[in-house]
Amino acid sequence: MSKIHVTTKINGDPVEYLCEPDETLLDVLRDQLGLTGSKEGCGTGDCGACTVTLDGRLVCSCLVLGAEAEGAEVGTIEGMAEAEALHPLQQKFIEHAALQCGICTPGILVAAKSLLERNPDPTEEETRYWLAGNLCRCTGYDKIIRAVMDAAADMRKAS
Amino acid sequence: MALDSKTTQDVMQFKVVGTRPLRPDGIDKVTGRARFGADISAPGMLTGLVLRSPHAHARIKSIDTSAAEAMEGVHAVVTRRDFPERDLDEGTADVLDNCMAGDKVLYDGHALAAVAASSTHIARKALKAIKVDYEPLDHVTDVDAAIQPGAPVLHQGRANESVPEGASPNIMARYEFGHGDIEAGLAQADRVLERSYKTEATHQGYIEPHACLAQMGPDGQADLWCCTQGHYMVRNTCAEILGLAQGQLRVTASEIGGGFGGKTTVFLEPVALMLAKKTQRPVKMVMSRSEVLRATGPTASSSVDMRIGMTKEGIITGAFAELRYQGGAYPGSPVDMGAMSAFAPYDLEHVKTIGWDIVTNRPKAAAYRAPGAPMAAFAVESAIDELAKGFGLDPLEVRLRNAAREGTRASYGPTYPAIGLEATLRRAKDHPHWSAPLGPNQGRGVACGFWFNFGGDTCVSLNVTPDGTVTVSEGNPDIGGSRASMSMMAAEELGIPYEKVRTIVADTGSLGQNEVTDGSRVTFAVGLATIKAARAAKAEMCKRVAQVWGIDEDAVEWKDGAAHPAGPNAGTHPPMTLAEIAAIASNTGGPIAGHCEANPEGAGVSFATHMVDTEVDPDTGAVKILRYTVFQDAGKAVHPAYVEGQFQGGATQGIGWALNEAYIYGEDGLLQNAGFLDYRIPVASDLPMIDAVILEIPNPGHPYGVRGVGETSIVPPLAAVANAVSEAAGVRMASLPMSPPKVLKAIRDS
Fold it and tell me: Is residue B662 within 8 Å of B669, Cβ to Cβ?
């Protein structure tokens, strides 16, 4: 089985890699590129822990092949903060204690950022439905929803 | 906050404890930098994968690994034969058999071989090349079916001496608790309710699958990195199974992506070490989600028969429960704790519980948050609710009339010190939730819950650095913010800012034995040890200062982060701060540290009352959670945000257990829903906000009054939701989960 050569952009950086035809984008990110912030919770697209953006679209990277990133722009949790400045969502997650174990946090943050890019003023219900594909077993979601709504409010004020 | 009990903790003025500082691992966890079990690799690493049984029950006639071993890129194959024949205690022998089957596979997913290969691709192919000759055997997965005459037998002669002669060979143990004369008690009742209740097995559902990385040299020195609730337990268990010296095996705990009790045992670790030993290469193993569901610790399913007698005034005159839990393929279901906790919230003259520990062809049950208690509470709290409503009584008032208090002899033996049940009930009655109006097809349920809490072996080292900052080393994986709590307690005791303390989770080579993160013990026991370690460091610093000032040690006291002269003979000296003392430590006797090694008693039992509103769709049977409030005694909430988080998370897991979650086995004995699509845990859109009301009735067994809070919150929701759904649907729901088809059928049959 010969490998496929892929040229892509990850968090703004140009990246090239070779991947097996059946290798997932998640495995490439984690095992080849050392970007272990995206997590594998299920491998079947049910838990959202591996959530990344592909050309701005929210995807489960366990359901995307590494080869599909050819020519695309991939955004992962590692690209969310700018140098020392955390994204407002990241800051609010810490302030609201919106994580306990933190395994789902990267996927939820990537998904929440994508929500706020599309809808800067989501209702609680819209936030809950947008994040329904991201499982969290620790928090009961209460503090996650509050953190996202609070970050949205701050971001609206700042813009 | 109202305190219902007066102890020394009432007058303590906290500066750090009770605030909500940012957790020290927060930035790592929101940036993706935190390293969990599967996030580490090593040079030359191999991938390990496990071969699992496709049968519910079968004799292994032979395993032929030769073809797999001959494959290019395959470095080792292990089976049970590779593990040394050792004289293991029964519990550890079962752990080994669960990690690597011996003569029989006992459930769908049971491990029986493993490979280490240069890539995952090759490892997968190698698994397929292993030839196993099985002799399939009859199987049983239902707890009640397992004790019928003629049921397939898992183990012969394993029952302990508590099991009466002639009982089913699938019964492993019998437990009995209580006091009084149950028949005499029931005879005093105006009504005796007899009802049976069933719950299905549920999984802890941590989002992080089990993962580890093992290395072992030819000299027997080994290193293991893994996600676990207790790396000291991993060390001891693996060393015993593999015949290693405990001191030669160093285990480092990764960040842990949830556990809820399910990571208090080992599954992959002994296998990874054996593969590493055989290959002399690092071996990494990571489970898939289906492996997690098929082969790691669900909790027991249960079947409970209840008889409760009540007067028309709402006084419980007698209470009896017989509990049958299946704990999977090995002894050790949590039925003992179910039988102990069932009636723990109530002050009863005549009470008795009997528990039966039963084996079936399912994965070995592991601890799950207050193991055994939620199912028992489901039965007890449902029955009390039904009786109370039958008499037209307020269900909260009935619980108050029977509530255990300080001095009550608990149904499982001990007499309670100051406890918080009554406070949670009173707060619930006064809460606006209790009097809020309900609409059509809506119902409100309440239920109480209890958990024992625990202390356990604990070792903490607190080190003062030369610049006057402080490092706390503890040995318990931080599963929900405990490093923040330890830093807070150390800062409180030393009188320095929270930001000056950093708490780390040390590896097994750095501290003495630490019990696993279980029993809601960490904030209590590790907190207590942290406070005592800080006190030891303060005493040492006072000694150093006494030396500098040339006065007696007793003439120096510690206040607000500094040593002060105290008493008539101390003279006048300007206070010396911790940083000033640290800076000259080298000249006053060397580094400054405090230690505490303890096995603290006095964990302080915990109680909660939950209140929930549900709406039932009469056309589909679907249940919507409209509103949820948790009232729980935390003793003293060290970091209230993380206490609320425990309340909210436990309630949500309980909601999942009540409404959706269940292990579904086919006639073939195979698990039919081994994935998050079909094993559906609550998602954000299923839930409202979960209101968390913290009560603080100080625990006399902890210097700051802390009680564990992690587990109690999953005990009441099963019954609270069932009571709400029963009211909304107009029919008593006595079997979980209350999935739409089941609710619809109950409505139509009523």
Answer: no
Kindly compute the dihedral angle of the four CA atoms of residues B61, B63, B67, B70, in this order, to the nearest 10 degrees. Answer: -150
Picking from A43, A101, A139, the nearest residue to B289 by CB comes out as A43
Total count of residues recorded for chain A: 159
CB of A81 within 8 Å of any CB in chain B? yes
DSSP, residue by residue, B344-370: TTB--SSEEEEEEEE--SSPPP---SS
Q: Does A114 touch chain B (CB under 8 A)?
A: no
User: Distance from A155 to chain B by nearest Cα, in Å?
Assistant: 18
Q: Which residue of B has its CA nearest to A37?
A: B32
pLDDT at site B11: 56
DSSP state string for B7-65: -GGGG---SSTTS-PPPTTHHHHHHT-S-BGGG---TT-EEEEEEE-SSSSEEEEEEE-
Q: For residue B161, count other CB atoms closer than 10 A to its CB.
A: 7
Query: How much is the pTM?
Result: 0.97
Question: Which residues are CB-contacts of B66 (< 8 A; sequence separation ≥ 6)?
Answer: none
Instruction: Check if B301-414+423-435+605-749 and B455-598 are the same fold.
Output: yes
Contact criterion met (CB < 8 Å) for A140 and B207: no
What's the token pair of residue B215? 């290395």
- Would you tell me which CATH number, out of the four given (1.10.10.10, 3.30.70.100, 3.30.365.10, 3.40.50.300), belongs to the domain B455-598? 3.30.365.10
- The number of beta carbons lying within 10 Å of the beta carbon of residue A11 is 16
Tell me the chain B residues in contact with residue A42 when contact means C-beta distances shorter than 8 Å.
Answer: 289, 675-676
> Hey, is the C-beta of A18 within 8 angstroms of any chain B C-beta?
no
- B257 at interface of A, judged by CB pairs closer than 8 A: yes
Q: Which of B693, B261, B705 is nearest to B524 (CA)?
A: B705
Mean pLDDT per 10-residue section of chain B, whose length is 750 residues: 41 91 97 98 97 98 98 98 96 98 98 98 98 98 97 96 96 98 98 98 98 96 98 98 97 98 98 98 98 97 98 98 98 98 98 98 98 98 98 98 97 96 98 98 98 97 98 96 97 98 98 96 98 98 97 96 93 96 98 98 96 98 98 98 98 98 98 98 98 97 96 98 98 98 96
pLDDT value, residue A115: 98
Q: What are residue A4's DSSP bridge partners?
A: A19
- The fold adopted by the segment(s) B37-137+209-256+263-295 is Aldehyde Oxidoreductase; domain 3 (3.90.1170)
Residue of A31, A52, A101 for testing the chain B interface, max B β-carbons within 10 Å = A101
DSSP state of A100: S
Q: What integer pLDDT is reported at residue B1 of this predicted model?
A: 30
> Which residues of A fall within a CB distance of 8 Å from B20?
97
Measured CA to CA, the distance from residue B118 to residue B111 in angstroms comes to: 21
Class of B301-414+423-435+605-749 in CATH:
alpha beta
Give B120 to chain A, closest Cα distance, Å. 10
d(CA A27, CA A68): 13
